[in-house]
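Hey, can you fold this?
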Amino acid sequence: MAAESGAAEVEIEADGVRVLVRQYVAPNVQEGASAPIPVTVQAGPSTTAVVRDKGADSVEASSSQSSETESANGTPVLAPTPGTFYAKPSPDSEPFVQVGDHVSEGQTVCIIEAMKLMNEVESEAVGTVTQILVSDGDPVEYGQPLLLIESP
């Protein structure tokens, strides 16, 4: 419910059970991202719900900063799904890519683990890796920039 509504936090209480869900807010926001939409939740007689909206000011500030970084350092490779970022195929292996490496279109650049499934993330651009934005083992969100590739 939090993800669909854009709310930062949802609290639901029913029959003496209270559930609080907080949505992780990624540090980088893609250019053109819209501000969250306020949501009204209808609650029955034994259920109460509270929805708090994220601050639009912080979203706009992050958007302008990330667009400057993306245009200056290359094309971002975005997370196709939320999960855990892995830079290497196994703990004993070398990373898929490092800063300064040349990548081709379709080359695997990392893995996102989601629900015990390993999803290979492939480059959609040809160029040189200029920056890796997340560390091995970090949680990532859908659409979060993972690394930057500068075209030749």
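Oh, and this one too while you're at it.
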Amino acid sequence: MKKSAKIITAAFAVVLVAIMGVSLGLNVLTLSKISTLESAAEKNDPSRENGVMIVNRYEVKSTEQISDAYISGDSSGLDERDKATLDTAKKILKDIIKKGMTDYEKEVAVYEWIQKNIKHDNDILLVVQDPNADTYTPQGVLAGKTAVCVGYATTFRMFMQMLGIDCKVVHDNDLSHTWDLVKIGSGWYHTDLYFDTPKSKFAHFNLTDSMRANDYSWDESIYPRGNSFEYCYAVMNADNIKNAYQIPKKLKSMLDKKDPFFSYKMTDPTDIQKSEIRVMLDKISESVFGAQNYENYYFSYNTIQNGKDFIAYASIVYPDPEDDNSIIDEKTEEKIRKAIDKVFSNLVENNDIIFDEGEIGEAATSKAVK
């Protein structure tokens, strides 16, 4: 081979190797980018129970390492933070779980402890600086006694799993909310502590799929079906009524005692009787809770059919005492008038101030009349 041909061949080989090197590098980068994208997609895969981001901020994290350590009695594999959480959770369970309790009784005990002791994290926009004070993991919830929905759901799940009760965290299709799906007996039930705390006790406790679907939708293909009424709270605690016309008196008694939840049942009612119950609840919602004395109350109701039993259930959220909208009396109005006149008389040309019908707990409006 001539010298020039050898040079050309060598040059071609160098170029070919360079091209192959660049191509290989690009493939590596591409594969790396694909791997990163796949990892991110997996992180936000709505078909997963854990690793899902709710409202793009709160991650649903597994705590099986804590429940496994509790069940096995071996916490050597836990880090210091998990050990502290385990110790706190053990003390709580020791206080609230009694020998001989059924799984349902254990579930109620945990539910009531969380509802009583864990408050809502109202400042959802606050950036959490202290990792030990977060509100979306059991570690932060038990340490700080505040929680967002993810915190309520994962904390309840952790306790259930520690007690050997199957429990899953459910998220809605919009990835905006979480709650629990717990197995009691042979059935699965929805429990939402976030919405039941602090004022709606048992309103969202052990609901069936159809009852939960009144508020949220979720991917039912990735969770067990909840179709049993055996441990449904509304079914278990329904009072017998003979007809719809007993409801107003029972409701008034409930309001006087500030009970947050009721359920009533009729066995084998006619279609007309069912309609009467529904209309009665509709009219109560419109007339009673639309009236001035109850306008700051929140009344939510529905009906279900369980075999021959037709059940009406409802929850009431009562206003805080400081939100009482009682109309102020003339004596109080005069007292307010004098207090304003005493301090601000030099700012008003004519001191005759007329108050609109203001209400305690709301900003009363006033105007100077010339």
